[in-house]
Specification:
Elements lengths: L3 H19 L4 E6 L2 H6 L1 H14 L5 E6 L11 E4 L5 E4 L4 H13 L13
Parallel strand pairs: 1-2
Antiparallel strand pairs: 1-3, 3-4
Helix pairs in contact: 3-4
Length: 120
Amino acid sequence: MKTVEDLERIRKQAKVMTKLREGGETTKVVVGMGTCGIAAGARETLSAIMDELARRNIQDVIVTQTGCIGLCEQEPIITVERPGEGKVSYGKVSGERARKIVASHVINGQVVGEWVIPAS
């Protein structure tokens, strides 16, 4: 932590984690952060998601991490879970794609079909 902005970002993240513990329905974004995901660029993807949510002042979305889910060729993988809807997993999510997924799916409820990993 080097700046006041860093402190503010940490405070906002702490608020989000508090909401997670309180329960209730909210949108959740899960980023695959296994070694395969990290090697494929998942840190950039996670950072882009957090930055885009902060830029849009969206505070009711939970962003969390998971390990490898066995689809290493699709990494970085993110899953979006919106209340009352099924989980949608996206593959090969770069930072740019992550920002577009936040804008389209997380905020507006429009799935970006071309990047969805088909259910097997």
